[in-house]
Amino acid sequence: MSVGDLTRRNRRYYAGVNDDGMLYAASLPKIAILATIIEAVDRGRIKWTHEFDRRLQNMIVASSNVDASWGVDLVGLLAIENLMRDPEYCFYTEPEGGLWVGRAYRKGGGTNRDPLFNISHGATTRQAARFYAMLDAGLLISKHWSFRMLGLMSPPKHFHKFVGGLAEQPGDVFLARKSGTWRTFHADSALIQSHGHRYIVTALSDTRHGEAIMRELAQVVHRIVKDGRHRKRSRRARRRRPRARR
Q1: Residues 6+ apart with CB under 8 A from 240
Q2: What CATH number corresponds to the domain at position 88?
Q3: With a threshold of 0.90, does the pTM exceed it?
Q4: Are 42 and 145 contacting, i.e. CB atoms less than 8 angstroms apart?
Q5: DSSP letters along 112-165, please?
Q6: pLDDT tens-digit readout, 130-181
Q7: Which range marks the domain in which residue 173 is found?
Q8: Phi/psi of residue 107, each to 5°?
Q9: CA angle in degrees (0–180, nearest 5) for 91-93-94
């Protein structure tokens, strides 16, 4: 899992556990399809139409496999790989792995499994968190397209995992969210605004209890970010830092 506290705009906080472990992530890597299509539009390789708004939002918030497969066909698996490996973003690195889409979300068709673990739809929580951090900072493709992508990634239509876990928290807003489920594999990722706090949480699991675990995890992370002791400690440490001798 990975957690990024973005509450202070001039100082970010990050914590991760097994955050470089790549797992099958089901529909979560559809965010890679979204970014690749946006990049192709930004470079002038594809012309944006109103159909894109409907299809891309449906791919993310409703997790439509039909629209995800349309997106893969539109840009191609190699283009998705190239963007994930692009040094400007580093969403897929070796030897850790990262975000990867190696086939469309339907039966049949071409494949391009990741070379490290032979996974077709994979992620690490660190690289998923990086995606949201860059999106929030306006650094994913461009400031304009980062803002547009945020609009396409909310509000969530599936009320489970993180969304279910925070359902009783008044004022919490999912600014962007993508989850995934297949058999025992459970994945979730989100950028959340909670009153004056803003944070990222991403998690992957391979257990039949994954959905329940992620509900509980969302509540724990929510309490930690709201409590903010990590921010207070870092402020005290900066005050105690000795001045350099001349």
Answers
A1: none
A2: 3.40.710.10
A3: yes
A4: yes
A5: ---TTT--SEEE-HHHHHHHHHHHHHT-SS-HHHHHHHHHHT-S-S--SHHHHH
A6: 999 999 999 999 999 999 999 999 999 999 999 999 999 988 999 999 999 9
A7: 2-238
A8: -75, 145
A9: 160
